């Protein structure tokens, strides 16, 4: 079974952002993209995009400015605590 591939425009629509924002995600936030030598066109695998979105949607707990990775799911559930 083939993995569905999406263009930049299709991927932006899929996750609900502008294509420029999608490009920012690729360059600054490690959104996985396939780019073949000699071609400017980007292709996105749906399964990798879904994994990236899932990872980014996980809650993060900061206590005194330190990220607490172990307690995220055990004690706090889906609470995200933001500190300046």
UniProtKB/TrEMBL annotation:
<dbReference type="InterPro" id="IPR009061">
    <property type="entry name" value="DNA-bd_dom_put_sf"/>
</dbReference>
<dbReference type="InterPro" id="IPR010093">
    <property type="entry name" value="SinI_DNA-bd"/>
</dbReference>
<feature type="domain" description="Helix-turn-helix">
    <location>
        <begin position="6"/>
        <end position="57"/>
    </location>
</feature>
<dbReference type="InterPro" id="IPR036388">
    <property type="entry name" value="WH-like_DNA-bd_sf"/>
</dbReference>
<dbReference type="Pfam" id="PF12728">
    <property type="entry name" value="HTH_17"/>
</dbReference>
<dbReference type="GO" id="GO:0003677">
    <property type="term" value="F:DNA binding"/>
</dbReference>
<dbReference type="InterPro" id="IPR041657">
    <property type="entry name" value="HTH_17"/>
</dbReference>
<protein>
    <submittedName>
        <fullName>Helix-turn-helix domain-containing protein</fullName>
    </submittedName>
</protein>
């Amino acid at each position: 079974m083939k993995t569905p591939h999406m263009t930049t425009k299709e991927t932006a629509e899929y996750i609900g952002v502008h294509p420029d924002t999608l490009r920012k995600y690729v360059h600054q936030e490690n959104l996985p993209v396939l780019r073949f030598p000699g071609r400017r066109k980007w292709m996105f695998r749906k399964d990798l995009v879904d994994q990236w979105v899932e990872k980014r949607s996980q809650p993060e707990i900061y206590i005194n400015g330190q990220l607490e990775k172990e307690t995220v799911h055990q004690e706090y559930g889906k609470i995200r605590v933001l500190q300046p």
